[in-house]
Design a protein that fits this description.
Blueprint: E1 13-16, H1 26-39, H2 46-51, H3 57-68, H4 75-91, H5 101-110, E2 114-118, H6 124-127, H7 130-134, E3 141-142, H8 155-164, E4 171-175, H9 178-186, E5 190-194, H10 201-207, E6 211-213, H11 216-227
Helix pairs in contact: 1-4, 3-4, 5-11, 9-10
Length: 230
C-alpha cells in the first residue's frame, strides 16, 4: 500500500462492481457495443466502451449518439441498440471469473463484512451467475434495474449504503471503471480500483481512486491486511 492511502477506520461493508471486477466481461461488452452501434449507423470506439463502463445502457446510448451521431438518441434508437446488444451478449463467450475474486469475496464474508454488488448492468447472462459464483443473494445486488440515475451519479452506491445501513466512512468500494469510481467517491466512499481493462492507470487516478492496483491478483495479495485495517 502507498504511504498516502488511508483505509476507513472501521470497515463494515464492502461494495463490489461486477463487470471487470468479478467477471472478465468487458471485452464482450466492448465488442457488442461496437457492433450494436454500427448497426444503428454509429461508429463507437471500443475505448469508449471502457470509458463509459458503469453507465446504464440507455445513458451510454444517449452519450454515443450525441458524441458520434451528432444528434440525440430517440426512444427507438435506444430500444434498437440495447435490444441488439442484449442479443449479441447472449451469443458471446461466457466470461470467466476474475482471478482470486471468489477468494476475496469469501475472506470478506468470513471477516463478517456486509457485501453488496453494485452494477449498472441489466444483462441477465451475468446477473444470473452471481448466486452460484459468489453466493450473492437478490438482496445483495443493486443492478441497472434498481436505480434511476446510474454511475457516475452517486445513487447506486448511496443505495448500497442505505441497504446495508452503513455510513460512507465505514464502507469500501472495489471498482475498475472511471465512472464507477466517480460514483463511489461522490457517495463519500474510499475506493480501490483494479485496472483490469485497457485504460491508462492515470484515468483511474484522475477519476478519484484512492488506490489503483494492476489487477485482482494484487488485490487478493493485500486483502487480508485491508480487512484487518492495516
Amino acid at each position: 500500500m502507498t504511504s498516502t492511502f488511508r483505509l476507513p477506520a472501521k470497515i463494515e461493508a464492502v461494495f463490489f462492481d461486477m463487470d471487470g471486477v468479478l467477471y472478465d466481461s468487458m471485452r464482450n461488452h466492448a465488442t457488442t457495443w461496437v457492433q450494436s452501434f454500427r448497426q444503428a449507423g454509429i461508429e463507437f470506439p471500443e475505448y469508449d466502451a471502457y470509458l463509459n463502463e458503469g453507465r446504464t445502457g440507455p445513458s451510454t446510448i444517449e452519450v454515443a449518439f450525441r458524441k458520434y451521431g451528432n444528434r440525440p438518441a430517440t426512444a427507438e434508437d435506444i430500444r434498437f441498440v440495447y435490444d441488439t446488444k442484449t442479443n449479441l451478449m447472449l451469443e458471446a463467450p461466457e466470461p470467466p471469473r476474475m482471478p482470486n475474486m471468489q477468494e476475496v469475496m469469501q475472506l470478506t464474508r468470513e471477516a463478517g463484512k456486509k457485501i453488496m454488488i453494485v452494477t449498472g448492468s441489466k444483462q441477465p447472462s451475468l446477473l444470473s451467475r452471481l448466486k452460484d459464483d459468489y453466493q450473492a443473494n437478490y438482496e445483495q445486488i443493486i443492478s441497472g434495474f434498481d436505480v434511476k440515475n446510474g454511475k457516475p451519479d452517486p445513487e447506486p452506491y448511496l443505495r448500497a449504503l442505505e441497504k446495508t445501513g452503513t455510513k460512507p466512512e465505514n464502507a469500501l468500494v472495489i471498482e475498475n471503471a472511471p465512472l464507477g469510481i466517480e460514483s463511489a467517491k461522490a457517495a463519500g466512499i474510499i475506493t480501490i480500483a483494479v485496472n483490469t481493462g485497457i485504460l491508462e492507470e492515470e484515468i483511474l487516478h484522475s477519476a478519484g481512486a484512492d488506490m489503483v492496483l494492476p489487477g485482482t491478483n494484487q488485490l487478493f495479495a493485500i486483502w487480508p491486511s485491508i480487512l484487518e485495517g492495516r
